[in-house]
Structures are given as C-alpha cells and as structure tokens.
Known about the structure:
Elements: E1 4-15, E2 18-29, E3 33-37, H1 44-52, E4 59-64, E5 67-68, E6 78-81, H2 93-104, H3 110-117, H4 133-145, E7 151-154, H5 163-178, E8 182-187, E9 198-203, E10 206-211, H6 213-220, H7 225-238
Parallel strand pairs: 3-8, 3-9, 6-7, 7-8
Antiparallel strand pairs: 1-2, 1-4, 4-5, 9-10
Amino acid sequence: MVNNAIEARGLTVRRGRTTVLDGLDLTVPRGAIVGLLGPSGSGKTTLMRAIVGVQIVRGGEITVLGERAGSAPLRQRVGYMTQQASIYDDLTVRQNLRYFARVQGAPASDIDRVIERTDLTGQSDQLARTLSGGQANRVSLAAAMLGSPDLLVLDEPTVGLDPVLRADLWAIFRRITDDGATLLVSSHVMDEATRCDRLLLMRGGDIIGDTTPSELLESTGATSAEDAFLRVIEASEKMPDAAGQPAASGNSRDDNAPPHASHPDAQSPDSRRTGQRLSEPAGPAEPAKADKPHGRHGRHAGGAQ
C-alpha cells in the first residue's frame, strides 16, 4: 500500500513566459487533513489542478494514490471541489446530486449518504438558488463525496463564509477523514491552520514549509498561525538561492488568470468555469435552465501531464 496520497517531484507549470510552479516537491500523507495555506496568487489552485490532472504540466512528475495524476484508475478515487459552489440553481439539492451521481457513475443509494454526511437533510428538497452560501458549498462538497473517493481536493471551500459556517464545514471535513479519506484543503485564512493535521505553506509558487500546527508555532515562537506564517516568509526571503543571492519574493501569478493553453484532456464534461477554471467543453445533456455545473475530477478524460 502506498503510504502517501500525493507525491510530486520537480513539478513545473508554466503559462506563457511565466513559471507558476518551478521544480516543486511535496508529499501528502494518507488519512489526514492537510492544509495548503498561502496568500492569494501563491499558486495553490494551479497545484491543485495539477494534482487532479486538469493542469498542463511542463516538467517533473506527480503521483496520486500511487497512480499518475489524471490517469483513468483515479477517476473513481479523487473528488475535486472548486472555489465557488458549482451547482444547478434551478434544481433542488437532491436533484443536483442525482444528476451528478449519474454523470459520475456513483450509485443512486449514495445520495442519501452524502446528504446526511453534509448536514443537508433539511434542505434536500430546496431549490439551490434559495440556499445560503454555506449550504451551497455543502452541496458542492456532497457532490465531490459521491462514490466515496479516497482523496478529496478542496480549493478554498470556506472562502467568504462567516466563522460559524466555517466551523461547521471543518467539522464535516474531520468526519470525512475519520472515515478514512484524505483531504487536501487550500485556504488563505491562516487561523484555519490549527484545524489541520499537517500544513504545507506556499508562497510565490514554492512550498516554503511542511510542518504541523504545533511545530509551526514552536519553531517560529509565534502565538498565532498568521504571525508564524509571516515569520516563515521572512526567513525564506533571507535564504540565498543557488546563485548566492537572497531568494526572490516569488514568481507568483494570480490563480484566477486564464491559462496560456488549454488541452482537451484537461476539461471535464461537468466542469465549466471562468478564468483559470475549466472552459466550456461539450458534455452530457444538462437540466433545463441550468448553470454552474459542479467541478469534479472523478470523470475527467485522462490527465494533462
């Protein structure tokens, strides 16, 4: 059995003349909540897209659950939740999940399970357009959970939510890992670091820290995760690079910028986003008057390696 859920070595992603990820290495252990923390534009979304196999990779290698990222064996094993809730506004919660279960090949019996696990029982027959932001996020999470994937990749799932709703989502995340899954959760809200089992700190397209919440505070002498992260940044910028010069502050590019090139294999029939999100490929028949379909790795047609 593979010990790590994700392993990347020398991962390089470029857009035009901009290098977004430059020889990045990382490991994500199984059965844990791993936080990918960093400011906006640090490369978190690009890295997550590479992990789920929808990002063109220019160099290096990345394996997920022992398989090449984006390969066919992973289609049933990896769930991907994009930043914004991606559900059909004119369908109920249950209708949305029934549709995504059909698209993803998940059993219909799984719908009740994910509704219960995401605390949506009371909203199951409610139209998506009438949901609160937190409820809509939970529907997207429920769709990603269909089929019981071994790995869930969640791109800033708590962005824009108030502290109470964020706490509710993190309680759900913990229950998912208690069931044996691995979660990779990105965030730029530093106080969420303490909710993770392990932390990957990202800045300017680089992993500048791989630690635990307690180790982060202890090693920096800080009293909060935010102060600790700032101290890690300061230390990384003082370290000389291979040429003996202080490290640059980053080669980051806004994660929401459009990709330099698209690739047919990097598009999912049920993933249509703007900006860096997946473009609008042809897909299965959609429910009438629908928009914002859910982004999910599970059925992507191969990787963009």
